[in-house]
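hey so u asked for the seq, here:
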Amino acid sequence: MREILLSVEHLVTEFETREGPLRAVDDVSFTVARGSTLGIVGESGSGKSVTALSILRLLPGNSARIRSGRILFQGQDLLMMPERVLRRIRGRDISMVFQDPAAYLNPTLTIGSQLREAISAHRRDLSRQAVEARAIELLTLVGIASPGRAIRLYPHEFSGGMRQRVMIAMAISNEPKLILADEPTTALDVTIQAQVVEVLKNVQEQTGAALILITHDLGLASELVDEVIVMYGGRIAERAPMRAIMTDPRHPYTVGLISSLPRLDVVLSRLPAIPGQPIVRVGDLRGCVFASRCGLGQGRTRCEQETPPLREIDRGRYAACHYSEEVPLWRPASPVVKKTVSSDTSRDPGRLAR
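ran it, structure tokens below
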């Protein structure tokens, strides 16, 4: 069994609003082992990114606060560390790949100068020549063509996919033990998404870093992660190995997410959608956060009055649903199937694409 690198325990994060405290993360706990890959999935507003920002304490100080919990990295509580100590960990032991590289790369500085700064901030023992060589090595590692030339270019001269590769290069510049990737393929077309996923795979294989992938795309997560956490309304709805989630989900919200994925075997009149709108957690809330949108609960009093605990329903599988045992027998209604697509495409390879 691999050693635990990160342990998040009962994390609660809130934002101050005019209407009252907004509970963005509510009693979230999980662990990440060395070299493993954890996925955190869910709709926008489910608390995924706030969880990641809480780990590195990068939340806006004027409106957000971590109300309770512990975040243990190699046995040390990041929430109790002085800021000067935490700054030495950020970018060296734990790094982050943000979803919009254009917002985090300085447009007035070359790619090379920004890479060199990321390296030198934690490796003051390296000479200028060594830093330059490391920067070129990193660009080569993430698949940037002609790195010796690319290092002299500015961010606007790179495509979106290339900028994201640069962000990954900066994140791994000091060989971190943990990488947080927050929606790293957002706004990229599917071809570039596949390339970025391949880069993350290669980087993890070569560096041995643990990875937390934050995404709303279960299909993308299935390409990378070992275990997945499904979040909704700031809480963990389900936690299980990736294969188990995709083949046998045990929470109605997870079923809804999987049902909304495009399929190759049938053509649907429209993609299924989870009814209603994501919940906004202002003030105290009794019951299940998903109750108002849940087709399984259908207004059962227990769902509306009692908060379901995240309980172990099988070895290594957890679900926060009072009726998780009923989920395998329940499925939401699907749109009418217009036609079935044969899985035999040997005679016509382009059939699925039409």
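The radius of gyration is 22 Å. Confidence is low (pLDDT under 50) at residues 339-354.
lmk if thats what u needed
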